[in-house]
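Changelog note: in this version the structure field was regenerated for every chain. One regenerated record is shown below for reference.
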Amino acid sequence: MSRIKDIAKKNSSRIVRKRRVRGDIGRGTAETPRVTVFKSNRYLSAQAINDIAGVTLAAVNSKALNLSVSRENAVKVAAEFAEKLKAAGIEKVVFDRNGYLYHGVVAAFADGLRENGIKL
């Protein structure tokens, strides 16, 4: 029973961090969309969101690329996502880590975007 409580506490803590981060970074616009990251134990996904219009401008998922979640694969996913952003005419974004710590896979994804010419 204790394990279930630990998992619930972990998830609720991430939600609290998520709300705090979202309040700090503000809203994404058409010129500078908000890039949000979601990671599970198996996959990584990201999307660029225009919060004002409520639309997703670009998205990528590691499952579609047949990649698991790791730091090396996060860089590959970031490169694919950067190409989609450039095709949509987006050069600058606001990074939303979605309550995850800026460490490991999330940091590798952000660094991969920077390496491919996207300004965070």
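Spot check on this record: Residues 2-25 form the longest helix (24 residues). The mean pLDDT is 90.
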